[in-house]
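Extended Data, panel c. Modelled sequence:
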Amino acid sequence: MRRTAATAGLLALVLLADPARGEPLACRRAIAKQSARYVQSVMKARERCADRVIAGRLPAATDCRSEATTALRLASAAEKASAGVVRACCGTDGLCGTADDDSLAALGWDIGSCPNLQNGACTNAVGGDADIPVCFTCVGAAAAGRVVALYFGPNGPAPAAPPVAACRRAIGKEGARFLVAKSKALRTCWDGRLRGVHQNPCPDPGDGKAAAAIASAAAKMAAAICAACGGGDGRCGGGDDLTPAAIGVPPDCPAVQVPGGAACGGPLDDLTGLVACLGCVTEFETDCADRVAVPLVAPYPPECNPPSPTCSAGVTCANDADCPDGYTCRDNGGNTRYCVGPACTTDAECAGGGVCRQYCTFAGCGSRLCQCPGFGCSGPDQVCVDDGGLACRKLCTQDSDCTDPFGYVCVNPGFADGVCIGSTPCE
């Protein structure tokens, strides 16, 4: 009996020490750990580079995706993540693709291919353990890159003078801190779930700690950004707040849905709205990067990679959900709403079937943006309006502004939204 008990005890130790031969708990935990560490490392590296550009310590034209120090940090983070998964998941020989690897089914990774993020490029086949870090590093890098684009605007970080520089730096620094804090809280929570400490979804009710930690981190981010960008009173909502346009962020909050939570999106009209958008989008990206690593206990949320609509020429929209990924539904000032996307220089840069043209509204024309086709007009003083049928109307302040083929009468003359009575088809 003693020998039997001793043998059983030794066998138990062997199974715990070698996850490839027993329950692959060590591998499951390593995947979640390495995924979280990777996205945190990427976020820190990207923010640190952007901060140096704003402060003037790196050239204004620096691309923080390829800047030498940042690129080295990103590559190192990816190598560490992959090595950590190989050590924990690929058996005693330390080689993936051999017989003692943990099975994808036991890990919850028998999913065929990476589940992607917002119709991006993270679609690699998952046929073995070595493919797992390829997937979660792709999703993590994409998530971090998307929040960086929100924090620093479509043109990236740029040197600035006070108080704009202090505001921009605070947005990047505090946004990165929030992402890292949430990622850490989620990773600890899921680790407890994997170890059987609790059986709850994370973060709420989770381990009883994650939700409160995330809420606290979000509040700290909001307070710090308001202090840096909110003018003399250091609060959001005052008349001396910096505007989103002055800060240099995109004109619209990305239209994404936090898994099981709030919907982000809409125009960024003031600092209060910007801070809310920053929190919402950071929550979304962090949740998706987190959930891709724990498929055994939490399926990948459909909100992270919803089907993307495509442009239909001349079709108006009701809200952002009607638009391709990266586009928002905007009113041109004449109660005509259509999908408008990011800055561009050529049609080839516009996804979702969009075209690149100067964006014109009743307020005037601005830079070139991706837009769904069927809403363009030939002149900068013409706007596509839906008044029972889409048509180009010429803006006017007096009758003499109206020339053939737009008729010779200005409706609402003297007002900014005056239009000539005649029209031509929209392009």
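The chain has a mean pLDDT of 91. This feature is highlighted in the accompanying rendering.
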